[in-house]
């Protein structure tokens, strides 16, 4: 008899949450944005997939706001900062050592915290709805915790 949980954990990563083609981002990292509801501006410092859309982390007056693309607009201006290149991109397949046997996941979020990059991957299957109701299914990991999978 096949252990259904092990089978589920080993194969659900193959189809990313957004389907076959990753939807385009409304803004890039460190791009300046203006909030639609006010005269405030900020910079994009992260993005992750939640529900059926990208959610953007916008730094505005020292606070991080999590907004959909409908709540701001881009000005195609980038923050002038020396930023190290991220090790992984959205949609990259990586191995994560969650258990005795490394499991494959897809990068579904990226976040810049000071000079460090964090990457969001699912820690549990999207089919397990009860976990999704209590907390996010994404776990944020550093690049040292991930290994790129050659497809």
TrEMBL record:
Q: Which domain of life is it from?
A: Bacteria
**What InterPro entries does its record include?**
DUF1392
Please give the name of this protein.
DUF1392 domain-containing protein
Lineage runs: Bacteria, Bacillati, Cyanobacteriota, Cyanophyceae, Nostocales
